[in-house]
Structure formats: C-alpha cells, structure tokens
Amino acid sequence: MKNSQLYISILKLPKFKFEQTIGQLEKRKGGYFYLTLDADIVNQFERKRATRLLCTLDDKLTIACGLNHLGDGNFFIIVATKYMKKIGRKVGDVITFEITEDPNPLGVEIPEVLTVLLEQDEDAKNIFDQLTDGKKRSLIYTIMRTKNIDKQVETVLEFLEKEWEKIQKKKTK
Predict the structure, then answer these.
(1) In 3-state terms, the chain is what percent helix, strand and coil (to 5)?
(2) Angle subtended at Cα 72 by Cα 71 and Cα 78, rounded to the nearest 5 degrees
(3) Whole-angstrom Cα distance, residue 53 to residue 107?
(4) The whole model's pTM is what?
(5) What is the Cα–Cα distance from 146 to 122, expressed in whole angstroms?
(6) pLDDT bracket for residue 9 (50, 70, 90)
(7) d(C-alpha 82, C-alpha 61), whole Å
(8) Cβ atoms of 98 and 56 closer than 8 Å
(9) pLDDT in tens, 71-101
(10) pLDDT at residue number 159
(11) What is the DSSP letter of 77?
C-alpha cells in the first residue's frame, strides 16, 4: 500500500477522544495500568472486540494496542509502565487519549526475514495464513528478539511446524 493510500485509509477510520483517570488492575489480575472503553464505542469498529488500535496518549505518544475484557461487557487498554514514564503520568492522573483503528490488523510490522520466507515457502505461508492474529504477533515478537538471521529462520520454521501439528490434531478430533 502506498503512503498516500495509507493516509487516506487512516482518515476514514473512526476516531474517539476521551479524558479519563488512569486506573490500575488488582495485582492478582496483573496490576496493569489501564484506560477503559465502553462496549458501545468498541462495537463501532468493524472488527469489534478483535480490533487492533492506535492510542495517542496526551497528544505525545502513539502506541499500538489491543482490547481486553473488563468482565462487565466493557473493555480496557493496557498502558505499559514504560509509556507511563515517557508521558510523565502515574495511576490516578487524568489523561487525554485518542483511539483509532490500526490500519495494520496485526498491529505490528512483519519482519523482512518472515516476509521473504513466506514468499519462498508455500507450505510455511499456508500454515501462517491459518494462524490467529495473536499467534502471528507472538511469532513476530519472538523473531524481533532474535538478532541472528539464521536463528530467526530456524525459529519461524520450528514455530510453524508446531502450529501445523496443532492444526492437524484439531482436524482429527
């Protein structure tokens, strides 16, 4: 997609702006810092609760994020401690934030090594295409933590082989 097409695409996506107090989940629920979103807002996105978002915090920092269930029908966005520090905020502070749908449904760029491998290996692409977005992101984050390209390729192939075995087991049940 060309930059101009991406820009036009982003302009068409719904945006919502809020002012809210930063909360923190109980320690037994992870202790994450979070911002809440009502279900009626989430349901306005095409992919509803499966939507990946771009969240701009205090007009200073934009982060890619996903939605998590609060348990009451509504949702929350996790704000990592490192982002809280970058914007100089703490739990209980009031923050302004804006959300829009991430034009990249994975919410993360696919590393070049994975792109090339999927272009060259039809079987690997077939398996990758069957993975959930969450599994794809998990693989991508694993690749990004590995510096050696040969090790990255090995990691991808091992991951896809394990996922293929899981897919086959589900088909036989």
Answers:
(1) 45, 25, 30
(2) 55
(3) 7
(4) 0.68
(5) 23
(6) very low
(7) 11
(8) yes
(9) 899 999 999 999 999 999 999 999 999 999 8
(10) 93
(11) E
